[in-house]
Each structure stands twice: as structure tokens, then as C-alpha cells.
Write a structure and sequence with these properties.
By secondary structure, the protein is of the alpha+beta class. It contains 11 helices and 18 strands.
């Protein structure tokens, strides 16, 4: 045992020394020839980056909690098979070897891939420090860092671009921290004299690498009620305003009529997610007197959306197909216990209608006469259908049918 410890000690000291010498790499930097250990899904469990000299090396940093990371594994595996002699894709995690091996074998996506997996990594995580995942480092055939992206950029066309040593204009994947307690906009430095309290509202461009943030804070000392959203799409501002004004079932009552849907809704088939974020997300900040009601702030947001972005919203009445809940003469016995069925409690039929509407995306109207708050257990195994809702709610004395009703909707146009 002493001999093993003595033999391992120099290796440990070398590893610690190397990590101390390593710094974070940026695009254009030469990647050092580091040793990577604890690899499974390939013959060798230890490699050096120089083993793949002349190849494009793609380092895919992932975590098992990162759904987009896992979903991309099948694509990465396909691409590796498309470019077996030109590309080496290595998936990288800092989690323990056995834990990762067990997860990989159990997951329905990863278990069908043959990608090599580097576990318990610290060296590559030191070279390519990051917080957000997916995170991909591209090292070209000359050992130069060519790009830092998400897995969305890993396509056959983009691989060919890097293999051809062509220049790319991809956004650099990064995380930026800002102090959310400080205002985005500083006005006092630009307004002469004793300004006292300043009330204002403004949209500013998205901040690349900054996480989404939302807050509504009343400061009784300064007498200011501050509203802030960072990196939020335009439709989310509409949704916040409508909720503040008491709207419900927005998934079915908010109607978008636009010639350019991409301005409001991300489409992965048309644009990279980070490019869309910079083009179509915005920051917004407003300062009001502390006594301002949320509804008044909501009106201010809708007004600013129109004057700054040309987005017009109005309430209209339209006839729409709905699910309608009415009273049954009497409940149909006890709720059965069926293995595998899942459900939840709703405090009233009105609350239940809102929950169903959120699930199906169409209006659900409560026309029952039940006023008192009660518990309604609602079974919804698998995909929600009208028949399943009928079968579930008959035990609570509620009938559900499909019908047309004239209801209020909020229409957004640009």
C-alpha cells in the first residue's frame, strides 16, 4: 500500500502543478497538450490531445441534469460516424466515473451512442471555464481554439467550415454576471441640479451572456417601486402585464397576429438560439412612485411596447371553440383508484378550468353552480383528451362538453 501511495504521489503533484499553470483559453489560443483520464466507451481510458493531431477535436461539456445536452447526444454520435477520420468528439463531465457510467447505460438516448465520455474532469474544465451548458469547445487540426458555442452549432455544415479553416462569426458562449440590485440605467449623472426622485421607463438591448432576471421591488426608504426584466422576449412582457391586470388562461386567450412570428417566438429551424436572444430579447426598467399599483405598471408596459416597438394590443370578443364545464345531476360514485394514474387537487371548478386550459391550450369555461371551495381530484393519465376529462370529472358531479362561446381575448399586432 505504501509503494502504491509513493508511486501515485508524483503523478498527483504533476497534475496539481499542471492545473496551476493552466489558464482559461479563448478563441485563437493554442490548446496545451493535456492528459485526459477516466474515459469510457473507447479502448483507451487515458489520452492526450496530441493523439488527435490533424483532427478537429470537439469537446462537449455536459451534465445529466441538462436536457438539451442529453438530447444532442444522438446528433453528436451521428456526426462522429459521418466524420470518423477527421473529427474526434469527446463528451466531458466532472461527475464521478461510476455514477456517469450508470447514467449513460440507463438513459434511453445515451445508451444507444458510442461517444467516448471523460469523467471526473478538472483539466479541461480549467481550460474552458463555463457555467451554462451545453458548452462546446472546438479545437481545430492545428490545435487552435476555433470556437466556443452550444451544441446547436455542431452540424455537418459547420464541421466542414472549421475543417476547411474558414473563419466563423459565431457568437462566443459565455456567462456574464451583473449586480441586479443596481439600476440598468443611471440618469442622475446626466441630469443637472437636484433631481430628487426620478421616474422613468426604458427598453435597452439584450445583454449577451447575462441570465434572465425579473423583479418588482418596492423601496419604502427611497419611495420608489422598481420594475426590471433582463433578456426577456417581447411576448413575455405582454404576458406579465396581462397577468398583473387579472387575465387568466393566457395560453388560449392571448392571440398573436403578425407577419413576422420570429420576432415573438423562437424557431430553432431558422436561427441559432443565442443569435435570436440578442436580436429579439430586450431589457426593460421602470421606476414609479412606491404607491403605484401593479395594474398601472402593466398599463405602462403595454404603452411602452407600442411606442418603442410598435406592438399594439387590444381586448376583443371572439367566438371560439371551448371546453365547457357544467353541473351533473349527481356525482357518479366514488373516485376509483387506478394504478399508474396521476392527478392533482384543484380548490374549485374555476381553478380546475384554468389548469385544464393551461394543459390543452384552448379556453375552458366554468359554468357550474358550485361556489364553495372544494377539492376536486382530477385523473389525467397520459395525453389529456376530452374523454379522459369527462371520465375523471363525472365522479365530482361535473360534466364537460365541447362548445362555442363568445369570450374576451387579447390580440397582439405589430
Amino acid at each position: 500500500m505504501k509503494t502504491k501511495i509513493l508511486l501515485m504521489l508524483p503523478l498527483l503533484l504533476v497534475s496539481i502543478f499542471l492545473q496551476a499553470q493552466l489558464g482559461q483559453l479563448k478563441i485563437g489560443d493554442k490548446c496545451p497538450d493535456v492528459i485526459i483520464n477516466n474515459i469510457f466507451n473507447q479502448q483507451r481510458n487515458t489520452i492526450k490531445l496530441s493523439d488527435f493531431k490533424g483532427k478537429l477535436v470537439i469537446l462537449d461539456f455536459w451534465s445529466k441534469w441538462c436536457t438539451p445536452c442529453i438530447e444532442a447526444m444522438a446528433k453528436m454520435d451521428t456526426l462522429q460516424k459521418m466524420f470518423p477520420d477527421e473529427v474526434y468528439i469527446l463528451t466531458v463531465t466532472d461527475r464521478p466515473l461510476e455514477e456517469t457510467r450508470n447514467f449513460w447505460a440507463a438513459n434511453k438516448i445515451t445508451r444507444n451512442t458510442s461517444l467516448p465520455v471523460a469523467c471526473e474532469d478538472t483539466v479541461l474544465h480549467t481550460l474552458f471555464k463555463h457555467e451554462a451548458k451545453p458548452y462546446v469547445a472546438w479545437i481545430n487540426s492545428d490545435g487552435i481554439v476555433a470556437a466556443l458555442t452550444t451544441t446547436q452549432y455542431v452540424t455537418a455544415a459547420n464541421i466542414r467550415t472549421v475543417l476547411a479553416q474558414k473563419k466563423t462569426d459565431w457568437l462566443v458562449r459565455k456567462t456574464v454576471h451583473i449586480d441586479n440590485t443596481r439600476p440598468l440605467i443611471r440618469l442622475n449623472d446626466h441630469i443637472p441640479g437636484d433631481t430628487g426622485k426620478l421616474y422613468y421607463s426604458a427598453f435597452t438591448p439584450a445583454l449577451h451572456g447575462v441570465k434572465v432576471y425579473k423583479s418588482l421591488i418596492t423601496d419604502s426608504v427611497s419611495g420608489i417601486k422598481a420594475f426590471k426584466m433582463i433578456n426577456v422576449p417581447l411576448l413575455s412582457y405582454v404576458r406579465w402585464a396581462l397577468r398583473a391586470k387579472g387575465w387568466i388562461q393566457l395560453d388560449s386567450r392571448l392571440i398573436l397576429e403578425t407577419k413576422d412570428s420570429l420576432r415573438f417566438i423562437y424557431n430553432k429551424n431558422k436561427i441559432y438560439a443565442d443569435v435570436w436572444d440578442l436580436a429579439y430579447k430586450f431589457c426593460y426598467e421602470a421606476a414609479y412612485p412606491a404607491y403605484t399599483k401593479d395594474e398601472q405598471i402593466a398599463d405602462g408596459i403595454l404603452y411602452d411596447l407600442e411606442r418603442f416597438h410598435g406592438i399594439k394590443g387590444r381586448v376583443e370578443k371572439r367566438k371560439m371553440k371551448c371546453w365547457v364545464m357544467t353541473d351533473m345531476p349527481k356525482a357518479k360514485g366514488e373516485i376509483p383508484v387506478i394504478p399508474g394514474w396521476k392527478g392533482y387537487y384543484a380548490e374549485s371548478p374555476a381553478s380546475l378550468a384554468n389548469n385544464i386550459s393551461h394543459s390543452i391550450g384552448i379556453p375552458v369555461i366554468n359554468e357550474t353552480n358550485i361556489q364553495a371551495v372544494q377539492k376536486v381530484f382530477f385523473y389525467v393519465p397520459g395525453v389529456l383528451t376530452l374523454q379522459k376529462v369527462k371520465d375523471s370529472l363525472k365522479y365530482s358531479g361535473i360534466r364537460v362538453k365541447e362548445a362555442v362561446r363568445e369570450i374576451e381575448v387579447f390580440v397582439v399586432r405589430d
